[in-house]
């Protein structure tokens, strides 16, 4: 009797270990359920996660890019503007390091949205990308009208952005770097001004890349 | 003999006065330096980097000793009023825009100047806050 109890305990521990070893990132955002019919004809309940909706913006080369350009990719996204003199330089200094780390991995991309719809036209974004030293297909800088960019930020990527004439450069926004998986689900948000959080982002990208579909 | 002793005492006195003056100068500079470091972190590091390395071509590095020495009388103006010009730093051209820091007072500006001209490999010595007002008179 005693022996079986002990071996049961051992088994439990084994399970505990095997679970904590398989690292998985959380999935953020609201979720709902839907009924799906399995191949065997039986109804099953499936969880539906919040996903990033379709989008269409002009990039730094004045070419339209959409969600299709990020198909099958993991990407990190943020909201900034080129004349921002406070947190953006730090965010992009840090994000550039992440970019350098994953430069040769075709599955990782970067997407920065400007919130300065008045001034940051594609040509301005182009100059910015060149000066930052990251003007490649891997890091898209995009311009869109206020409505679509601000809605996407707040409703879908959960980043607060706002026009505010009393703020230092005319806008208020949060410095989140948001990690999105291959199924357009939010898997993490990291304060881009803090180097320890950016280090965590790097680690989490690696975990996400290793995750089974 | 008496004359001899007097001479020794006198020269010791002069010597210690000079030494203590130097010490005081150094202590003052050290104070400026630590204050300047905090101000730098708060206002400048985001663009110019922890080690003055700059940020791509968006913000120039602060590692060009010749540029800093040649523009020492202008540094107060750059900090107070910002800078939007075409400048060459470490042989690279920059045409960005640095915001002005109107809220900084003369003593803070002096601390910043002492910090940036005595860090990142520079050793350009003291810059007193009285100098700030004088230099700010000559901004264009």
TrEMBL record, chain A:
**Protein family (similarity comment):** Belongs to the SCO1/2 family.
Q: Where is the signal peptide?
A: 1-23
Ranges of residues in domain Thioredoxin: 46-210
| Keyword Signal attached | yes
- Organism classification: Bacteria, Pseudomonadati, Bacteroidota, Sphingobacteriia, Sphingobacteriales
Q: Does the keyword Signal apply?
A: yes
Could you identify this protein by its name?
SCO family protein
Species whose genome carries this gene: Pedobacter montanisoli
Q: Which UniProt keywords apply?
A: Copper, Signal
Q: Which domain of life is it from?
A: Bacteria
From TrEMBL, chain B:
Claim: Membrane is one of the keywords in the record:
no
Q: Looking at the keywords, is rRNA-binding present?
A: no
Family annotation (PROSITE patterns): CYTC (PS51007), PROKAR_LIPOPROTEIN (PS51257)
InterPro entries in the record, alphabetically?
Cyt_c-like_dom (IPR009056), Cyt_c-like_dom_sf (IPR036909), Cytochrome_c-type_DH (IPR051459)
What are the record keywords, sorted? Heme, Iron, Metal-binding
Query: Which top-level group of life is the source organism from?
Result: Bacteria
Q: Which Pfam families match?
A: Cytochrom_C
Domain Cytochrome c, residue spans:
31-120
Q: What is this protein called?
A: Cytochrome c
Q: Which organism is it from?
A: Pedobacter montanisoli
């Amino acid at each position: 009797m005693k022996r079986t109890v002990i071996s049961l305990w051992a088994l439990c521990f084994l399970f505990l270990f095997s679970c904590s070893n398989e690292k998985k990132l959380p999935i953020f955002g609201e979720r709902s359920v839907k009924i799906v019919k399995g191949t065997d004809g039986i109804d099953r309940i499936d969880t539906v996660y919040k996903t990033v909706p379709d989008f269409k913006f002009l990039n730094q080369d004045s070419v339209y890019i959409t969600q299709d350009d990020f198909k099958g990719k993991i990407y990190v996204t943020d909201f900034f503007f080129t004349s921002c003199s406070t947190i953006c330089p730090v965010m992009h200094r840090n994000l550039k390091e992440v970019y350098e780390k994953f430069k040769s991995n075709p599955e990782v991309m970067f997407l920065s949205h400007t919130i300065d719809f008045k001034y940051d036209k594609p040509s301005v974004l182009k100059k910015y990308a060149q000066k930052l030293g990251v003007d490649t297909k891997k890091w898209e800088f995009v311009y869109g009208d206020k409505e679509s960019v601000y809605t996407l930020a707040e409703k879908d990527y959960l980043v607060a952005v706002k026009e505010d004439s009393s703020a230092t450069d005319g806008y208020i926004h949060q410095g989140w770097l948001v990690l999105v998986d291959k199924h357009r689900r939010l898997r993490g948000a990291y304060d881009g001004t803090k180097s320890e959080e950016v280090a965590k982002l790097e680690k989490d990208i690696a975990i996400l890349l290793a995750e089974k579909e | 003999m008496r004359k001899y002793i007097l001479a020794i005492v006198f020269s010791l006195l002069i010597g210690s006065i000079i030494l203590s003056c130097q010490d005081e100068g150094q202590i003052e500079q050290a104070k400026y330096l630590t204050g300047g470091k905090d101000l730098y972190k708060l206002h400048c590091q985001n663009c110019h980097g922890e080690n003055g390395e700059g940020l791509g071509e968006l913000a120039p590095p602060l590692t060009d000793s010749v540029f800093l020495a040649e523009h020492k009388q202008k540094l107060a103006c750059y900090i107070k009023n910002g800078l939007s010009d075409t400048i060459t730093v470490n042989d690279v051209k920059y045409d960005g825009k640095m915001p002005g820091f109107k809220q900084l007072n003369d003593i803070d500006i002096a601390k910043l100047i002492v910090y940036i001209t005595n860090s990142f490999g520079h050793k350009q010595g003291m810059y007193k806050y009285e100098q700030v007002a004088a230099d700010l008179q000559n901004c264009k």
